[in-house]
């Protein structure tokens, strides 16, 4: 933990430079074929000379080739284990520590594209959660540009980028993105993506003060957000805020029920940290006899 205290949060320029310096690449064909090429070269040499050492050379070369392949496989497995550890920290919401570890691990992953993409995704998510939205948008774009436009992951990342744009009050950019994604979201029919898109629409309604449109989502919101896990808390909290703005009475049970749903999943302090406008709801509790 002490190490995280000296980790400096990167600026957008530093993020751009780090990503540009560590672009993923597939394994080199030369590196892939080099062990076999070396083995066959040694085999040719051994056949060309009638000497006891020449007869042993192919077996020595085979041992070296097997060691090389095994060492490379062990390195990939070790990197994959480290990536899983970083992802587990992200799930536990240790965003600063996760960002530091993913940032440091990224240069080692340029030759393992699938794991590299997962670490960049972790970096984007942590930058987003740490409210470094400019850097998060840049990192989301880095990933999206390297995926087919209709790929499930590209759609999910595009939704996350739109939410970050809304947090930066880039309302026009976010609206254009969400409109363009609507057809893809419907065609994919993935519950997590549907939930993320519904949440993005809710954020958009709140950011543009269209609280009536936000409350119109209420009948399906609980089921739609359920696949998001604890992240659904943000949606419940924003629905409570929307009901609060439309309520004639500050003690309305509906507001308290939605706020209670949110705080069951996540502490109020974390909700308010992500969406500062939720501060007006802090201190509310479940109404007597209320239903969640």
Description:
The protein has helices at 12-21, 29-48, 52-91, 95-105, 113-129, 133-144, 152-167, 171-188, 191-207, 211-215, 218-225, 232-246, 253-265, 268-274. Helix 4 runs antiparallel to helix 5 (113-129) and helix 8 runs antiparallel to helix 9 (191-207). The protein is an all-alpha fold. It has a domain at 190-292. The radius of gyration is 26 Å and the shape is elongated. The mean pLDDT is 85. The protein starts with 11 loop residues before the first helix and ends in an 18-residue tail after the last helix.
Rg over CA atoms: 26 Å
Note the beta-strand portion: under 5%
* Classification by helices and strands: mainly alpha
Largest sheet: none
> Globular, elongated, flat, extended or rod-shaped: what is the shape?
elongated
Number of separate helices: 14
Oligomer: single chain
Percent range of helical residues: over 70%
Separation of the first and last Cα atoms = 38 Å
Give the averaged pLDDT, no decimals.
85
Helix-strand string: HHHHHHHHHHHHHH
How many strand units? 0
Low-confidence stretches: none
Write a brief structural summary.
The chain has a domain at 190-292. 72% of the residues lie in helices and 0% in strands. It has helices at residues 12-21, 29-48, 52-91, 95-105, 113-129, 133-144, 152-167, 171-188, 191-207, 211-215, 218-225, 232-246, 253-265, 268-274.
List its traits.
single chain, 292 residues, mainly alpha
